[in-house]
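for ur thesis appendix - CSON012032 protein. copy paste whatever u need, i formatted it the way the template wanted (i think)
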Amino acid sequence: MNFRLSSNRVFLALILQLFLVLSYFDNVAALRCYACGPSRECEDKPHTTVECDFGWISRAVCTKRIIGDYVARGCFAENFCRDDGIDNCFACSYDYCNSAANINLNYLALVIFIPLFLYLK
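the 3d part is after this line
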């Protein structure tokens, strides 16, 4: 059996492994979120940001809450949207995830690197 791998494949495999490992360490520092509202302007163009860290008390999450015609964004404790039956409340846990256009980079990375992984296999 010939188990020789080209140096390009080994390098790409190492890069893939490193990227996958690093993608799980997105919560090392304080979480950064958009904060604004409640207002109509907060719906499309949030530009104020805050760093959230509740320490050992609770995990911080970024939130987006729709209140009638208004939108509010900020950071709260992990269970904020679940407590008291709050409707139209969305929580997420990576930097700036409560923006107007929302995409999770970890999932995006997975979609990008699956073809690479299949190629290396």
